[in-house]
């Protein structure tokens, strides 16, 4: 599927969530991320107050409960997409800006 998306000009980051201890990547935006790393990324932004949930958002209370559980690696349902985006944004500084710009357009 990822190859077809790229042929169409749509770039993606392919991620598998593992039970292992080490992150791996092949240099072509294919990653294997330990579930605990996703929970740790969420914990960092939640503890720092950098991730907040709009109170009037549908399923806000369910998401808040899942995010609290996700700190301990219980990631799934509503918390998985938030955890993946948080993990990516937390490591964005270590990814060369030209690669990010190629994937997502110019970021200021």
Give an overview of the whole structure:
This protein is mainly alpha-helical and 108 residues long. The protein contains 5 helices and 3 strands; from the N terminus they run αβββαααα. It has a 3-stranded mixed β-sheet. Helix 2 (35-47) crosses helix 4 (79-91) and helix 3 (60-70) packs across helix 4 (79-91). The two termini are 30 Å apart. Mean pLDDT is 80; it is low at 104-108.
Number of strands: 3
What value does the average pLDDT take?
Answer: 80
- Rg over CA atoms: 15 Å
Strand arrangement within the widest β-sheet reads: 1-3-2
**Span between termini:** 30 Å
Order of helices and strands: HEEEHHHH
Q: How does the major sheet shape up?
A: 3 strands, mixed
What share of residues is helical?
40-55%
Number of helices: 5
Task: Supply the helix-strand structural class.
Answer: mainly alpha
**What general outline do the C-alpha atoms trace?**
globular
Could you state the oligomeric state of the chains shown? Answer: single chain
Low-confidence stretches: 104-108
What fraction of residues sit in β-strands?
Answer: 5-15%
């Amino acid at each position: 599927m990822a190859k077809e998306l790229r042929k169409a000009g749509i770039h993606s980051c392919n991620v598998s969530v593992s039970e292992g201890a080490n992150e791996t990547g092949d240099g072509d935006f294919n990653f294997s991320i330990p579930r605990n790393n996703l929970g740790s990324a969420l914990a960092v932004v939640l503890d720092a107050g950098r991730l907040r949930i709009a109170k009037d958002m549908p399923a806000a209370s369910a998401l808040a409960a899942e995010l609290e559980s996700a700190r301990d690696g219980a990631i799934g349902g509503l918390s998985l997409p938030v955890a993946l985006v948080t993990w990516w944004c937390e490591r964005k500084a270590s990814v060369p800006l030209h690669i990010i710009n190629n994937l997502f357009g110019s970021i200021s």
